[in-house]
Design goal:
The chain is mostly helical. It has one helix and no strands.
Amino acid sequence: QQGYAAALALAMAAFTIAIAYAVQIRGMKRALDQ
């Protein structure tokens, strides 16, 4: 049970980081286009 919670927390953290990374890349591309 504890291992499952840790894996879930790790997955959520990775998901959040991936979204933040994608948003940052999109913002950089938009800035470069202008």
